[in-house]
Write a structure and sequence with these properties.
mainly alpha; 68% helix; two-stranded antiparallel sheet
Length: 238
């Protein structure tokens, strides 16, 4: 794969990696600050888990803590969306041919997500293990899952993105492209379902378990659709 990537492509990939890593550190550092703000509130309701992300605080509990705490929740939602927008804009700016935009976005997102957990481990020694539960996202409702689940998704995106950049994609019919896209979207939907099924249990407690069959089905479908879209080899020269 290394021989296939052109020098200019290496430079663009390096720029994307640096930006995604910086975003990962920024997000991790912001989470450290937010946890320090939320700890006194969590101490009132969950003293044994004051420094953990679960159980989730209810909106009523956040409101009782004061308007500034509830306002932080809204700021956090916007910040999460802003980070994704930055990665998407960077990916579009780096693309030079068809398919590169998606590939750069997948790589950037993966680096951002994986290094976010690495930086948190360095800064506050969290998570304790890949099985530690985390709140992944807040839009439109909280997503909860063990850390290994989003990392597995990110590793898949990273591999798919690198393969897409290393291989010139062959032509694919409109029907096949539609089927592959729908397969990938179905996989994403099932993964999101697995992240949202336990939200009610996460309010006031820790989920009894993760719905890994939903996740596994979504991961398989998503990976199949992505690799069909991005890794189809070119038939030129044959």
């Amino acid at each position: 794969m290394a021989k296939t990537l052109r020098p200019s492509l290496w430079m663009r990939l390096a720029a994307l990696t640096v930006l995604a890593a910086a975003l990962g550190y920024i997000e991790a550092s912001i989470v450290v600050y937010l946890r320090e703000v939320i700890v006194p509130v969590r101490q009132l309701h969950y003293p044994d888990a004051a420094r953990e992300v679960l159980p989730l605080l209810t909106l009523a509990q956040l409101t009782q803590a004061g308007p500034e705490v509830a306002r932080l929740l809204n700021l956090e939602r916007v910040r999460e969306l802003a980070a994704v927008i930055v990665l998407a804009a960077m990916a579009l700016g780096l693309r030079r041919r068809r398919g590169e935009g998606l590939a750069f976005f997948m790589i950037g997102f993966a680096v951002w997500d994986i290094l976010y957990y690495v930086f948190l481990k360095v800064l506050i020694d969290w998570p304790a293990s890949p099985a530690t539960w985390d709140v992944l996202y807040l839009v439109p409702i909280p997503w909860v899952a063990p850390v290994w689940a989003p990392v597995a998704v990110s590793l898949t995106l990273l591999i798919a993105g690198l393969v897409a950049l290393a291989r010139r994609r062959g032509e694919i019919s409109a029907a096949a492209k539609l089927i592959a896209s729908l397969t990938a979207l179905a996989g994403v939907a099932l993964i999101l379902v697995s992240f949202m099924l336990r939200v009610r249990q996460a309010v006031g407690g820790v989920p009894e378990g993760f719905d890994w069959p939903w996740f596994l089905a979504g991961w398989l479908l998503g990976a199949a659709g992505l690799f069909w879209l991005t890794a189809r080899p070119s038939t030129r020269g044959r």
